[in-house]
Specification:
This protein has about 140 residues and is of the alpha+beta class. Helices cover about 15% and strands about 40% of the residues.
Length: about 140
């Protein structure tokens, strides 16, 4: 009986240790260099297929009249915050999809010292000249 209890406790402690380590390592690296857990910063970016940040002003290449990229926000402050994303096409708000669901404004929570990423798609056409991804901090007064 003591052997079984000792084995169960050992497995439980190993499981908790692995979960804690995995949870600590998951999404704690910022989008921009130097932006990491404890830096009291917020960084965001648009990622290409290789997970690299696109430079501001980069030419976005539509495929089948759609722009499909990953948006990332790193919330390396000690507070959980609510954010919203909007997309402007030629300076007009336009619908988009996040993880396949349609939105005009997408809201999400960012946990302290974590990064969040989501796949976003927006339709384009021949008249599309400018796409803007707006991150807004949701604040209730």
């Amino acid at each position: 009986m003591k052997k079984k209890l000792l084995i169960a406790i050992s497995l439980l402690l190993i499981g908790i240790s692995v979960w804690t380590f995995y949870n600590k390592m998951e999404n704690t690296k910022g989008v921009q260099p130097g932006f990491q857990e404890g830096s009291n910063t917020i960084s965001y970016g648009l990622l290409d297929d290789d997970g690299k940040v696109l430079n501001n002003g980069s030419t976005l290449e539509p495929k089948n009249n759609k722009l499909e990229y990953t948006l990332s926000l790193s919330n390396f402050i000690e507070l959980e915050r609510d954010y919203a994303v909007m997309v402007l096409r030629n300076f007009e708000q336009t619908p988009f999809t996040v993880e396949g669901k349609p939105y005009s404004v997408y809201t999400f929570k960012a946990k302290p010292n974590k990064s969040i990423e989501f796949d976003l798609s927006v339709a384009t056409n021949d008249r599309t000249k400018e796409i803007v991804f707006l991150y807004l901090k949701n604040q209730i007064i």
